[in-house]
## 1
Amino acid sequence: MNGADQLCDVLLQNEVSVCFANPGTSEMHFVAALDRRPEMRCVLGLFEGVATGAADGYARIADRPAATLLHTGPGLANGLANLHNARRACVPMVNIIGDHAGYHLPFDAPLTADIQGLAQPMSAWVGRAETAADVRRVTEQAIVEAWRNSNVASMILPADAAWGAVDAAPAGPVSLPARRQVPAESIEAAARALHRAGQRDDRTVLILSGRALHGAALEAAGRIAAHTDAMLFSQQSARHERGQGRVSIRPIPYVVDMAVEALKGVGQAICIGCPAPVAFFAYPGKPSALLPDGCKVIQLGDATHDLATTLDLLEQALGSGGAIATRNPVAQRTTEPPTGPLTLSTIGQSVARLLPENAIICDESITSGRGLAPFIPSMTPHDQLPLTGGAIGIGIPLSVGAAVAAPDRKVLLLQADGSGMYTLQGLWTQARENLDVVTVIFANRTYAILQDEMRNMGVNQFGQNARSMLEIGRPDLDWCALARGMGVEAARADSADAFDQLLGAAFARRGPFLIEAVL
Ligand SMILES: Cc1ncc(C[n+]2csc(CCOP(=O)(O)OP(=O)(O)O)c2C)c(N)n1
């Protein structure tokens, strides 16, 4: 047995059983070891950003880490933007980054790089197995740190640590750290603030993030809000439970003016699992902090805390158990397909009437999402996986990871065209793995959000240089040809009727399908 075999053993013993990979020569012993363990599912990404984004999507749905296999510093560097998104989503992940054998590093061969330096800013923990004898300990530590921090752990595996011999000691699963508990005093302070909410002139809000946005935690938050008259908001997080019958919750808007308006008059904010909300960007004369000056903020925990227990204890302190949460209405789906020109509104209507039960929506729709937002509460209950860290190019990889994690659920990917081009190779992985993903491309052929942002900065006239940087037509991308070239069937829709028909047909079959929605 060699170090690479032992690495595979430790991963599998700890239920890390999927590896999103793009290997190179320094990882050949690891590839051979993975080959000896067919119970490990190895999924190839044709670019490392696909592998890291897919591991993120997998963790958001499976609630446990996948591994990635990345080739030295440059391979890792290609995956960094989506590691940044994963770090912001607070999902566990175990990166295995191959390196040259230790004795080869002083020769400064072409792929030699500062892997530690590249990994550090996008990882909560970085470790290196110097020799084969280190592999078991470092792999176990990586898994523990991924869970403890609910975040990215990166392990560097030099080639000689992979090929060096080790004793075949049977490795048992490690004991995983329990989520941390929020201090009782903080919960009491939040309860006192919420008790007083009704007697104050200003507003009190509960702002939820991370694991507070699903399951029992979300239900408890709904009852607390109903009992205390506090309003519920959400911060962009790894996974949101949304749709008909779900606890009604308002996302904090992206646009600063809208966010400030939504939070106007708030005097107390209880932030569950997150700090107080901030603007995505700075703009001249606009605030960075979104809550009004002087607002009292009580933060209960972060992604490493047990938010379900926190909300349960808060509920007990308030006695809100019998309250009835405000929910999105439950209504019959309309049987009438929309007709006429294709717009965001007709796309929203089609998704609302056709979305299968318990679907997963991966959302990198950027500006198009604003047009779809009004339809979300009327969609059948689903999970939404949004862009968390603002680094575009996550949508297609996210859909790959989510579909691998949940083979029995339909994945709908809402994908803006500009962002989709960053990691479109992920379509090939959808086809290779026959993943059940329907991709809708919003083909508006511009970087629409950046045009809005130019206007927000006070620039209303776009000259040739600005247009050449903010439009992505000339030539128009042919998404159907791109998809077919990677083995994904595709069709174009330029009317509401055609889109509705294609979406219904795509949902009715299994396997990947792409619809280019021409806007
Ligand atoms: C990694 C990265 N590069 C660049 C950007 C800047 N950026 C933000 S949105 C955007 C274009 C989005 O265009 P598209 O995906 O077509 O969506 P639309 O705005 O048209 O809705 C760019 C380039 C970014 N956020 N992340």
## 2
Amino acid sequence: MKVLVAGATGAMGKQLLPLLAAQGHDVVGITRSREKLDVVHELGARGIVADVLDPDQVARAVAEAEPEAILHELTALSGDLDIRHFDRTFAVTNRLRTEATDHLLAAGRATGVRRFIAQSFAGWPFARTGGPVKSEDDPLDPEPAGAMRESFDAIRHLEDAVTGADWLAGLVLRYGGFYGPGTGLGPDGDQVEMLRERKFPVVGDGAGVWSFIHIATAAAVTRGRAGIYNIVDDDPAPVAEWLPAAASAVGAPPPRHVPRWLGRIVAGEAAMVMMTEMRGASNEKAKRELGWQPRHASWREGFAQVAA
Ligand SMILES: NC(=O)c1ccc[n+]([C@@H]2O[C@H](COP(=O)([O-])OP(=O)(O)OC[C@H]3O[C@@H](n4cnc5c(N)ncnc54)[C@H](OP(=O)(O)O)[C@@H]3O)[C@@H](O)[C@H]2O)c1
């Protein structure tokens, strides 16, 4: 199949391109920069230079690639992330989730694309009430935190646009927090560095539940019927449990504990949501309907393997 990957050079793109090429697909990858065309080539794909925020460039790239499937793995999350100003930090990512999704869908419609797979997130967008682990049928947050409102709206836009495109099979993959190569929780990752420097504390009761997924296992999901799928491991866990375990896995000292009031002042509202209120996700639907299994059933063994 001819596949176009938008976000070809990112952490996910670097996993996806060789996998798709090995499966015999004819893969084309988008990058903004000519210099990264070699990277795309080395990953087993042909590169096209385009800025996905420009509809004309997207139309040209899609017309040139003539893909049957488009994979949207676009984010703008490299560099220092200021979680205190969450929406500002996610502003470009939010444009990639809204404008770029619309441009890619419009260009895909014009050229007869049959499948569209887009990246979403399994975590803070879930309703912060009810049980600790959410399925695809559970509601998203009816009252998102003010600091995350624009990012929430962008996620919702992406999910609605992709699942609402009835002229193709649209899949939304709600990935858990990534760990593994090229991610914050990989060798030399930012979050590992923060753990080593004891700058990643447990805040309040640390009851916020996180779901994780090894990035290579997440990349293996490219088949399936239209719909939303949580792509996470079997072991959603509260911060108070996974953060000390992650520190131990990478040989860092135990994380500090910070009271909620102080955490809120220093790290802001979004951090409080993730530290104390966030819900995790169930992968039952993905296992049942996609025949997929995470490589590591739990982040516990996954973190240990990455650290080794
Ligand atoms: N679920 C999760 O936990 C999750 C999800 C996503 C990201 N992250 C984390 O975020 C960090 C950074 O992610 P990353 O390494 O993937 O880098 P990134 O800076 O977020 O870039 C991702 C991709 O988006 C492309 N892109 C961005 N803006 C574009 C535009 N206007 N036009 C065309 N392409 C555009 C980039 O292409 P070019 O630069 O080649 O143009 C790149 O291929 C990693 O630690 C990752 O683990 C985590």
